[in-house]
Every structure is written in structure tokens, then in C-alpha cells.
């Protein structure tokens, strides 16, 4: 067992000792050290109030940020290091499973603090001063057995988010789920409906980033077992997630959640081609206010990406002019994302774009060899017709009925203007 604590953390522990208390590390950092896997974020705790912790921090010349006065959480910043300190507390929840405690009582009892945690593997404390483990619920034993086990029967009853955490830990740590824990999660899965959408998205992002070829099957099976989509996204109540034409876990980490959203949308449509109207309707039902409550920008990115991606579901697709334009006009970020999860369709479209470029065929109006000013002055077109005529010129060039050359565009514009008068 090697905690390899920094000098700053040891210094902070000594300062707490001098002030009459002890400092403990708890949660994922302790668990990961016991598993001999990388451990990064350090959560610390003590009986000290937030005010006292801030006083000690300032004495050391460090910085701090109050995260939540209600929950007693302070972020401590010591140079390039940071830790989150939470005062020992007892939480009381409402009956809606909404994650945040209704009432908080700050206490001096470490065992009582342990009772508010979720799984035995996450309720292990490390006494920095004494260099020893404090384990009230057999968490060390459960880690050795590689199993997830709840602290008590109320874990999921009071906080639906813990069901998503159960899925995440079972997936990322490749732990089995204790029979009693599984039964309790299924019994209380209706509590998923009361979690804030921000929390849901945060958990899904963490889960999907950690997905790979080996653990994705477990992830999808648990989503189904706990009927997560039924309670979180009602429009997808009977959705069966399946990986057919692409694997979302093949996407780069920073794009993996978006790739997972693509998987949800593709499964919703059963990997069939759909119209833009159908897709945008589904996007808003799944990712809008009735679903995950993503921003309009996020929904727009998912929509524009899926418009292109769905053609990878078709054997030997023939790209339309509209599809080529859609692809050309997406951002480089979206193009790179598509290249990562569906190289076949992007290779096809990249080749098509090159052909259009070689022929000097515009793929958006800005590529026309004529400006609005030239249409107004040289073609003597009224301002109210400029936008419409430019759109017609673009379509004629795209369909190769005229060439994208200034003289031709001006002549065509004059003819079109006469027909509009």
C-alpha cells in the first residue's frame, strides 16, 4: 500500500494536527491505491468546519475556493496541487431521489460520516498522520473480491444518481455487483427520474469516456437492466442500444460522449435513413428539454453530424448534392469526429468534395465567383432580389447547369432579374 503523498498534503495534515484534529483521505483515491491503479483526485475530510479549514489554509499561504457552504466543501489550492475538503456530516434526504440532501448536520464522528457514502469500496478512510486504513464496512475485503456493495439499504432510495455511479464503477473498474446491491438498484430505479439533467450528463460523460472494447457490453447491459432511458429520456423508453455500424468507444476521449449520443440516435432509428425533419424532431425529444437538456448548440452539432453519419448505415451509398454540401460546410471538429467513428463515409465524401473543387463547383454561396456588391452595381439588380438570385445561381452551379465564372454569373443574374420584374 503506497499512498505516496506530496509534501504539501503532509504539511496540511500536520497543520490540522497542530489545530487539534486529524486529516483523512477518503473515496476513490484510497480505493484506487488499494487496487494499484492510477489515483488522481484527492478528497480529504475532517471534523473541522469550513471556516476553520479556510483559516488553516490561509495560515499556510495557500488559496481556497468555497464550493458549497451547505455541504461543507472547500477546494484547497496549494501551488499546482488541489484537494477538496469536506467536513464530517450527516445527510437527510427527501423521498424523491434527487441527489442533494434536504438537511445537513456537521458532526465530529467519522463513522457517522461514513454512513452517508454509497459503496463499501468508496467508504474507506486513510489516516494520514497514523498511516493506516479505517474501514467500517468491509470495503477492503470487497475490493479484493472486486465487488460493489452498498453501505445500507437506503443508498439508492435517497439518491438516484448512485445507480448511475454503480453502472460507472462496474464498467470502469470491471467489478461485479453484489446480489443485494443489484436487487436494491432495480427496486429503486424509478429514482432516476428525479436526478438533475446536468448530473446525468456528467455521469454519462464519465462512463462513456471509460468505455472500451472489453467493458462496453457490461455498460449497455446495465443501462438496460436499470431501465435508465425509460426514466431519464421518456421518448426512448423502449430503446434497445446496439452497436451496428460503428463503435462509439473508438472515438477519441474528448468526442466519446458525442459518439455515444450518435449511438442512441442510431438505435432510436434502428440504423435506417431518415429525413432531416425526422432527425431534428428526434434530437429535440432525446437531447432537448424532455430528454438530456443539452444546449441548442450541442443539439445542432449532434443533428448536423448525424445527418452525415447515417449514410454509413447504407451499403455502397451514393452521396447526394445536399449531403456533399452538408459535409463540406460542417466544422473541422465535426469532420475529424466523423473520420474517427466512420472513416468509410468520410473518405467517400472527402473524395467527392475534391472532385467538386477540381471542377470549381461551389459548395456554398460564399464560393460563388461574384459578390453582392457586383450583383447590385454591375448587374443592376434591386437589393430585394440579391439574396434570392444568389441562391438560384448557387443551385445552378451546383447542378452544373452553368459554370462558376463571373461573366457567366452576371449574365445569368441579369436574365433572372428581368423575370422577377
Description:
The protein is of the alpha+beta class. The protein folds into four domains: 1-145, Beta Polymerase, domain 2 (2-Layer Sandwich), CATH 3.30.460.10; 146-232, Hydrophobic Seed Protein (Orthogonal Bundle), CATH 1.10.110.30; 234-358, no CATH class; 365-420. 49% of the residues lie in helices and 11% in strands. The chain has 20 helices and eleven strands. It has a seven-stranded mixed sheet with strand order 3-4-5-2-1-8-9. α13 packs across α14 (296-309) and α15 crosses α17. The longest helix is centred in the C-terminal third of the chain and has 16 residues, at 343-358. It is elongated, with a radius of gyration of 29 Å. The protein starts with 6 loop residues before the first helix and ends with a helix. The model has no long low-confidence stretch (mean pLDDT 92).
Tally of strands = 11
CATH C-level category of the largest domain: Alpha Beta
The profile of the biggest β sheet is:
7 strands, mixed
* CATH topology label of the largest domain: Beta Polymerase, domain 2
Helix content: 40-55%
Q: Supply the number of structural domains.
A: 4
Mean model confidence by pLDDT? 92
- Determine the number of helices (DSSP H or I, runs of at least 4 residues): 20
Q: Output the strand order for the largest sheet.
A: 3-4-5-2-1-8-9
CATH architecture of the largest domain: 2-Layer Sandwich
- Poorly predicted runs of 5 or more residues: none
Strand content: 5-15%
- Provide the structure class: alpha+beta
Provide the CATH superfamily of the largest domain: Beta Polymerase, domain 2
As a whole number of angstroms, the C-alpha radius of gyration is 29 Å
The termini sit apart by 85 Å
Coarse shape: elongated
